[in-house]
Amino acid sequence: MRLVGGIWRRTPLAVADLGGLRPTPERVRETVFDWLSHLFGTFEGRAALDLFAGSGALGLEAVSRGMAELDAVERDKLQARNILQTVSKLSAGDVVRVHGEDAFGFLSRTTESYDVIFIDPPFALNLQDEAIRKALPRLKAEGILYVERTGARTTEALLNELGLVRLRSTSAGQVDCELLARKASLMAGLAREEKPPKRNMRRERNKEQRE
Tell me, what CATH number does 131's domain have? Predict the structure, then answer.
């Protein structure tokens, strides 16, 4: 497990043997940060929040690529300590703050606002929707939410309820990820129209003939 881009490229990350801990794959991170670079133009002066930080891969990748500030939140003491050790090794303590606490507890007390909020809880806990709701007040007007799930995306009903639009989405193996922004933001104008699933025309013609 390592960082894949920026000034700390190839830096290894310690991953504790914990149930449910599933670091975001390197190829997914590469795609996501290509998207973010295109949408933001630059990470200079921007702040990120990595909820459910786990290995710290998403947040540290952001800082490696130029993000100015990072709050990484991880309630597991061992994994939070691993992130702190990596931060110390990289001499990044002036940029990265590690919080060994529950993600929702952190959101309830912080007054900071962020350009990017990474939401990637253990899939089995199914906390994504709750995290989107509670993180949204801490997102800047032109900010972006990154959400990772398996086998699904954020429903259109929830997007409409919260006034969000999907900017980008992709799938890789068991990972489904997306970038969300406020519908009222300028960022929403950069949403890429998603192609409908490909239809198997031969199968449909055969079905019609049988009927």
Answer: 3.40.50.150
Structural domain includes residue 86: yes
Listing DSSP states for 91-137 in one string gives: T-TTTEEEE-S-HHHHHHH----EEEEEE---GGG--HHHHHHHHGG
What phi and psi, each to the nearest 5 degrees, are found at residue 56?
85, 5
The answer to whether position 61 is within a domain reads: yes
pLDDT score for 204: 42
Q: Which two tokens mark 64?
A: 């490696």
Range of the structural domain that residue 60 is part of: 26-210
Compute the chain's Rg from CA coordinates. Answer: 18
In-domain check, residue 21: no
Strands of the 47-51 sheet, one edge to the other: 96-99, 69-73, 47-51, 114-119, 139-149, 175-182, 164-172
Specify the pairing of strand 114-119 against strand 47-51: parallel
Would 64 be classed as within a structural domain?
Answer: yes
With tokens 């990596």, the residue in question is 86
Residues 6+ apart with CB under 8 A from 165: 159, 180, 181, 182, 183, 188, 191
Record the tokens describing residue 81, joined without a space. 């300590």
Q: How does pLDDT run across 54-75, given as a tens digit for each residue?
A: 989 999 999 999 999 999 999 9
